[in-house]
Design goal:
Helix content of chain A: 10-25%
Radius of gyration of chain A: 30 Å
Shape of chain B: elongated
Oligomer: heterodimer
Structural class of chain A: mainly beta
Largest sheet of chain B: 5 strands, parallel
Strand order of the largest sheet of chain B: 4-1-5-6-11
Order of helices and strands of chain B: HEHHHEEEHHEHHEHHHEEEHEHEHEEHE
Distance between the termini of chain B: 87 Å
Largest sheet of chain A: 22 strands, antiparallel, barrel
Largest interface: A-B, 54 and 44 residues
Distance between the termini of chain A: 59 Å
Strand content of chain A: over 45%
Radius of gyration of chain B: 29 Å
Number of helices of chain B: 15
Shape of chain A: globular
Number of strands of chain B: 14
Amino acid sequence: MFFTFLIHLEASFILIGLSLFFLLIGISENRFENERNNKVKSEPVSISGRIVDHTTGQGIPFVTIRIEQNKLSIRPENPVGVVSGSAGEFELKVESSLPLTLDINHISYQKKFIQIEDSVVTNLVIELVPSVMQGQELVVVSSLVEREQLESTITVERISPAQIQQVASFDTFDLISTLRGVDIATQSMNLQTISTRGFNTGANARFLQLTDGVDSQAPGLGFPIGNLLGPSELDIASIELMVGPASARYGSSAMSGVLQTETRDPFMDRGFSANLKGGVHGLKLGGAEPLAARGDGMYDFSGRFAHVFNERLAIKLTGTWIEGTDWRANNYDNIGWGDFWMQRDTNPGYNGVNVYGDENFVYLPVGLDKNDNPDGSLVPVTRTGYREEDLVNYDIATRKASAALHYRLSETATAAVEGRYGYTNTLYTADSRIRLQDFEIFQLNTELNINEFYMRAYTTRQYSGSSYDVFYLANNLLNEAKTDSDWFRDYRMVYSHGYSLLNIPAGDARRARQFADSAFTLIHNRQAHARFEPDTPEFEEKLTILKSTHDFNTGAGIRDHSQLYNIDSGISLPDLVDGIHMETGINFRFYDLDSGGTIFPDTTGNHITNYQFGGFVSSEMSLAQESLNLNLSLRFDKNENFRGSLSPQVGIGYILNDEHFFRFSYQYGFRYPTVREQFMNQNIGNARILGGLRQITDQYNFHYNSITEQALSRYNDAIVRDMNPNPLIHSSPYTIEQAEIRNLHILEDGIIGDQDLTPLRPEKNHALEVGYRHLFTPLLYLDLNYYVNFYNDFIGLVRLVKPRTSPVLDLYTASGQVNNSTESDRFYVNSNASERVTIHGISFDAKYQSGGFFAGVNGTYTRLLSSPDDPIIPGFNTPPFKLNFEWGNREIAEYVGFKMVYRLRTGHFWESPFLDGKIDTYGHFDFQVNVRIPKLGSMVKAGFTNMGVNNYYNVYGGPQIGSIIFATFTYNPKLF
Amino acid sequence: MKMNHNFQFLLTAFFLTLAGCSYQFPEVDDKTDNFEKADFIRFYVLGGTFSSGYMDGALYSDGQKYAFPALIGKKINDYYSEEVYRQFLVESDNGFNIFESSIDNPGGKYRLKYLKKDDILPARVPVNGEIPEGWDDDLNGVKDFSIPGLTASLLQKNNRLLDNPYFTRLPLDDTRALIDILAEQQIEILVLSLGFDDILLPAMNGLNTINSNDDKGWLSTDNFKSEINHIINSLSEVSMPHIFLLNIPNLVHSPYFSTLDIHFNLGVDVNPSQVAGFAQFYSEFNDNVFRYNFTENGGVAAELRRPIIDFDVVGGDQFRAKVIVDETLPDAILNDGTKIPKIRQLTEGEYLLYSADEKNRESADFGSVIPIEDGYVLTKAQIDFIENKIQEFNSVLEQTAQERLNIHIIDTFQKINEIRHEQYTAEGVVLNTRFERYSIYSADGYTLNPTGQAVVANLIIDSLNEKLGTSIHRIDVSEFPALNIENSFN
């Protein structure tokens, strides 16, 4: 009965949404009629004109002109209105009673209200005054920043449509990486993920990404999927980035920041617009022809169409089609035994960064002395792996489409239904290297706004398509030919004794490998196959089979059809208490995981679901003659598997002399583990990642049977020291066996005991931030802040090695197994840090603007403070220092603009379940020049990203990012 | 009214969602053993050192609990939820080590230790032991009659005549033979392990009283066959039990026999000047041999020639091979009456037993200027003799099984040989038969450690499942301790 319900849950949910929509339409018929009857009768109203700058007289684009409704609505995108075009022109046609009030709004200008009394108004010229602040003796005028932003008690960054137009990158999403405090993980050409305040990863569960209030996370992945489901740049009205904890308002997944993207309202932004981009990377000049050039190309076509059928019904259709060739992850540095430059031909322990299948190793006596003669020393021999480029297709694709139906129920109420669809072929790097092939994601959202109230219900469902795990692909390909244990035994025996039948002498590591890779085996009654070599029909045939096999014991296919359902509702109460603006809201979320046992332990008959709900109340008030702003929030959340928690937040803003804006905020936040962190049970080739719920971990009996990787690392280091004593000490070396025995206590200290690996708890965070904002002149703005976050029960991965023999039972035997991958298993278990993890940092943001010229520089310095004894690997993955510098001119000549960006990221160490390694310092220039063609209502832009700089990567093991030369043609008659 | 209905629908859906969110984790796979196909209350074990849990040179409590019969017995007890299987427990932490004891100072189990930094091999160091105390518990329920040192022939002897501390501590009727006592039990299943001690005890002493042509003092193959038949017939008089008969592993491949190098290691055991000294020491001996072989009286036939003792600094291992006494060498007397000692250097394929390790460490004279006595050595002929004996005994056991449907062979010989060739993998761990990590042998070098016991237990479990139709899960071999080695220095 229960499962029947679950199976039909999705259909029920959609029905709920649709019935909500049509119910409200039904309700609205009466209500709308009543309103009409109760009020003066509406009539067609037509208003057209131009918005201009009061000081310069120039037209102002992107000004929102709407009929005034709710000044303090928590859903501000509700009203009826339009946005001005590139020259400031606008035309608004509505059914309305007269008189009506137009609300004229722009980020850089003072808000203005104009009353309209006639039904037809033409050539209306509205002058806007740049934002003005009245000091005691000083009048500061600024087009750089809104007053609201100056007074905000949190760090907030905003991107306007004008900035989107000027982006100097192929991908608009790249613009976000130039904001203060933002780290980007580039996993693929068409997939970047964002982090703020540290802990950068390809799967950041501490960062919330909303599009029109809808969470863009993939339910089975548990993290925002960057630009795979987001809106096309043509449909973006604004982007707002809240840097730092916001979980008291947005819930547990907003621990380190929130990115809110608002799309354009079809009632206000109507008509057709399109965008065509083309780009080339990896460009190589020359070749057979003197003027020939060769490179990998990509193109991006986007379109948007919005139409209003009458004053009540509007539709919006958007679509994006991206295809191209991806960056390649082709770092072949050795991360195994020996120096980084040693390759397979000289190093039996070679383990390449982007070579897979060579992670497993067995210590064998194949070492050489200084004269390259065998000396019997132990070397961790690895199998002959496969390069990533042999295993994956680097063609990428993103296809996005959305359709929205907006219906005005009344002058103050709107209902909307929106469906979003995303399709992609890409690669992402999180726990493993995953090829998303024919990956699809659907989102259906229904929403109702009535005055200050809103209610939203949405569902997101992902289909993994033909996706596969590249690690598994390599490992199972090798095992199809010969199992690890057989391969290592063949290698060992042939190396030790030779193989006279094939004239292989003993002690020849290269030929021992050839034998082990061949179809021969020394194991009785075993069948073996020669290693499948790339570019052979057998290899391709095997790949096809493995990719489509959804069982990691024998294949690499990923199945994940997980879905989430979310209902949230809120209301703004500006008048409930005099002088206090209050908001309150509730939400309920339900996850229905479906990976067929490939990621979660949801095998047949074992259905996994998870729910959580919460509610908040916040208030905002001004004291001391509006020089002191106080912001208080309180939120309660409860997850099915964890106790309910309260998270309070207090923000204080103080305005000194109306020109110095100080801010302080404190938040006690928490984060529930994501469904992955709770339930995951996935083998990633070199390890198995486990969720931290006891029901997941208990079956592996870690306590007293496993050892932390840190202890193992210290143990191995100590052995090397004992075997190679410092010559100055005049101590004779220990043999390897003696050194092992001598240092067993190190391993013993690392044995997981009762006090370790306790049941997973929510992560808590005390976040403190102080900041200062100041406008030196109307043209120069500065924002400084310092923040410190104290994490308790920080959720990270504990890396464990579980030898076959319990170290408590026989430590000596176990100590031999921990360094051999066929004799021990590695686990990455989601768990809480036993000690406090602290991050702190300081950042600045300075902007200058004069006429069309603009320049900005921002920088962030941040550090992690954590105990090296804590077995948790925090994965901070953040450059200690990052700097963004941009400058340009929107109108350096008539219709011509340009922008240049320089980004610097200092080197840091990257830690992830996939790979650990050093990311070097990198910096790169981006440049674009654009020409508007008003006659065609278009703009042409050309530029390059990362010009003249060596390839770099910002995810260790991820793709090497190179230069892109791109050109863009945008058709938007309203703007250009 | 319309709105109310829709609102109720929404509320119902919401609460149904909440009610439906009760995920139950699946139960872990049930691994309960099923013994119901046979009556394991009447499961018995009869054997000697091999099945007793004797390990590390002694019988002690921790070792006994890992004996392969005890590992199966634990499963039986778990199945029946009562102690239907019992051993003659010794209740001793360190046991009694016959080979390391004096009257005043009983030795206990061995521990393997590197005594100094440049040691290549660990030494067997006995701890203090305890003489086995009398077993005064109730005999009722004791199913395991494994007694260290119990040879096939002793089973039929009057118990009073047995001089075995592990036997004499038991409250058995000393006027009767053990086999007669056992025959009275209603045995349904019997694990029988005999013949191991008949081979082990003489082999451990280097077979010093026996040469390849003389098996005087050994249980002959015919007698072994006779003893086995008698035992089986006696046990079958009352009932017709299923007998699971363990054959004998090849003892000479265990580390006690095959670990020590037969030669000095240059730079480790000896330095070049010492080797030169040894060569000088044997120059007169070698002159005499040369004279005997080739010059005096025209020399002797090739088969009567005596080998010289050749120490050579620049030679390989064979030119630093240790010198042993070999009484099987033909007599050699020179014309002047000089009797050439019966000594020679060890050759490849011969064994220097681990009992020589202590003397080895004491002085480089041992095996150089002081020839090693035969008791520390197995020559090729002796190795062949022992291996032939094992082969013959195993043939007897095989033939016995073929003649009776109720007797099933447990092939420990093959399994341990497989491990010796590193063809046996336990959960990815390649076991071996050396004095190394992952060995199946204990610190004495000739009995199995818990890992080895678990391997044998699995052999028996496989056979029980096959022959009796039981459903007993195999034991995870890697969950048992293996060989432990320590440093005696920091």
